[in-house]
Structures are given as C-alpha cells and as structure tokens.
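Give me structure tokens for this 141-residue protein.
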Amino acid sequence: MTGWGLARPADDDTLQLANYEIIPNLYRHPKRQGQPTISFRNEHDVYALGVVLIEIGLWQTVDQIFVTEIQKGHVPSTCVTKWWKRTGAAEVQCQIGEAFVEVVGYCLKGNKFLGKREDQAQGLIDMRDHVIDVLAQGIEL
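Here you go.
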C-alpha cells in the first residue's frame, strides 16, 4: 500500500449492483453490502483500509476472524464494526498497540468525507493526520 491517493474520484458514478457474497462484503462499507443503499463515497475505501489493517494487526484474514459467522451462512452488514467495538480493538491493541487501534477505529467510522466538497477536503486532511502520519511513524520504528 503506497501513494495514499484515492482509488477513484468522489463524484465518480458506481454501479448499484447487488452482491451477496459473504467474504467480499466483509471488506465493504455496511451501506455498500448486499444491495447498496448509497453510491460510492471515499469513506467506503477508507473503511476497507480499516478492514485490511485489522488483518495486518492480527495476522489473520477476515474470513479466518469470522469463520463461525461465515459457516452459519449469514453475516450481518455490521459484523465487522460490532466485533471491533466488542473485542476486536482489544485484540489488535494486544498485538500491535494503541496508536494502530486508533487508526483502525478512524477508518471504520467512515464518515469523514461526507457533505460538501469543502468538507471532503477537510476529511482528506483529517485522514492524513489520523491515518497516514500515524502509520508513517510505525514505519520509522
């Protein structure tokens, strides 16, 4: 993961196709799972980054973390965020530390880019401050 550019423009149109595959949906923002209820927004990619960071922090993929739920055949759209609040943050903190937990928590909130274009610009600055700069400090260690 390099560059930290955006995957696509905020105003880029996306397909609203339904996708009910369990494992890919674990990486998707809850409002983009199944039948998406909203169009793409930058915070959806930030949310997915948070999920990938969980995998890095625990050295497990999300399908390993949620194996029981996957075996049941139904994983609610809020599965990752509820798990994060319940036990995930504590598990990740034990493995990799508090600063990393704060980065993941920031990413999973996924609401920093909402609103007008000026607000989106501020959201990108906030992301740099709360995600990119914090992760860069870890790289220097």
